[in-house]
């Protein structure tokens, strides 16, 4: 593995899943995908084409047909990448393809079945087995994070508050590239722990059923593993290498019409398609090699994959295909995409001693704790020696940790016994004054307390030290490797075979290209007739090639039209939504409020989002703060001159401020006896309105705070009310 900046192209492999039950029941059309594993070729048949139309052939680094095993793909195409990550490179594997073609199956697979475990669980095994088999002078720190991009928002899948959590921000740093701020990262010490992290994240992932896949992933998921390894270099100092692995399961590149989605799902699909088309544009720009601008910033996905595409990472792309004739167009698009990705060049390099290596921080912290602990133990030990009356000569370093701990424990025990003995002596001393006795006993008690506190502090420090240390994995020590020699040999042989078959394929592909070139050179013609024949043959061949290319152009055009139609559909959908939002704004939000909001909005290009400016900028708080209007001084709200005069004139209810402290309480309970009973009362008796209890018990109006008992009769409303009351008995009669 070289450390220079030589470039390396993205490795592209293609996998085709078997026909599923639904596709089999659709008819005997069979698979449209044929694979030549030896040559690494995919041959695609167009189900709508005539027999004369040539089939399309694509060549890749490796191809895996319906019978391929998870293990084959891993050993041949993924293992070398993980080895590079363990050596300190950045690595990315991403699965791309239409929904339901096996992206999640390839990346994750079926956990429980060892035969069907996908790339991610196999990578866990690989990493921890590597650590267990490495030399004991190496220290490792393994961390895992899990995130998803859902509706163009980055979400932390390990955050317990995942559903309600705020979207995370992307940041860029010259050393480590693009990273996610505040992303949870868990230190993992074993396969079991990292699997647990994966399970927690999987449960939080957004999935939804579409017509094409019952458990379709509605988001792009990224599982990130950071492996830091510290190893003594030739200069005797410890050097740290950091390998970052991105395991990406993309959401499906589906056609909206085919998946039968609507509403929220359609919005999801639009976002997914948008980010995938951004990915496509990035791949095209990189593969082209001529365009100076690579649109990484068009989507969150492309920004996160910036290092993996055209950056400093080693990248493997697994393009997944379905064999069904129904999805010919999508299969062709996926193959074109993959074919383009082959041309991307990366410049992988080892991350040696980066500034942000967490392992370094851990090592420093552990060293600091150890020094502290050492110092404490040394002090206790020295005291013990003094108690024993021996001379202190030894060096603490000469003793092992276990011996030291024992010595300290012994010292504490002896010290406690001594203090206890002294206390007993003081108690039994008959010549000492009671006061003196009390004072000495108190002193001893305090010494005992100090001793215990000291011991507790040491214990806490030890626990912290051990916890920190346990997070680091030491080569060949922390993890037991239960595989026996025979199994190890078997594994090694399998890797060798995988390597051999891939290099064989490479040679075959090269030979194929060379054959075509050299066949012309070898041709010698003995007669004119022969030459004509040969040239005619060649012409025919070239003509066929021309036809192929013409068909290809037509295909690309069709594809372009289709994707434009889809974009138009998305645009229509978005325009409709925009109109809906406008309608609400125009009709339900007052224009001045709208203007206020508009003037506060600011576009953050870094985050690609509109943001609110703070209401009052902190620095100009005093100058910006709105003045209280002159008419409101001393009042709750602006108030007219007339009202002020009215208030000054007397306690007129209308102008009184609504302060409930001024309200008189209505002490009489409301009486709601039946109206009929008022018929018994004398017709000319007007009901009392002053709140005093009436004998008849008719409906009584309770006195409001605004009614002073004497002024009531003058109020017109009360007059009509009184009239109403007097009228009641009339109607009842
Ligand atoms: P995607 O993630 O691309 O939407 P999935 O991985 O969920 O698709 O696969 C859809 C279905 O196809 C699953 O039921 C899965 O088990 C099955 N499948 C996919 N690839 C294979 C394969 N290579 N062998 C067997 N079954 C597969
Ligand atoms: Mg999936």
From TrEMBL:
Its keywords, alphabetically, are: ATP-binding, Coiled coil, Cytoplasm, Cytoskeleton, Microtubule, Motor protein, Nucleotide-binding
Set out the biological process GO terms recorded for this chain's protein: cilium assembly
> Where are its TM segments located?
none
- Signal peptide boundaries: none
An example Pfam family from this entry, by short name, is Kinesin
Would the keyword Coiled coil be found if you checked this record's keyword annotation? yes
Coiled-coil segments on the chain, per record:
525-577
Q: Where is the composition biased (Acidic residues)?
A: 388-406
Protein name per UniProt: Kinesin-like protein
- Show the SMART domains listed in the entry: KISc
Here the segments flagged for biased composition (Polar residues) are 671-691, 704-720
What are the recorded GO MF terms, alphabetically?
A: ATP binding; cytoskeletal motor activity
Name the protein family: Belongs to the TRAFAC class myosin-kinesin ATPase superfamily. Kinesin family.
Task: Please give the InterPro entries that the UniProt record associates with this protein.
Answer: Kinesin-like_fam, Kinesin_motor_CS, Kinesin_motor_dom, Kinesin_motor_dom_sf, P-loop_NTPase
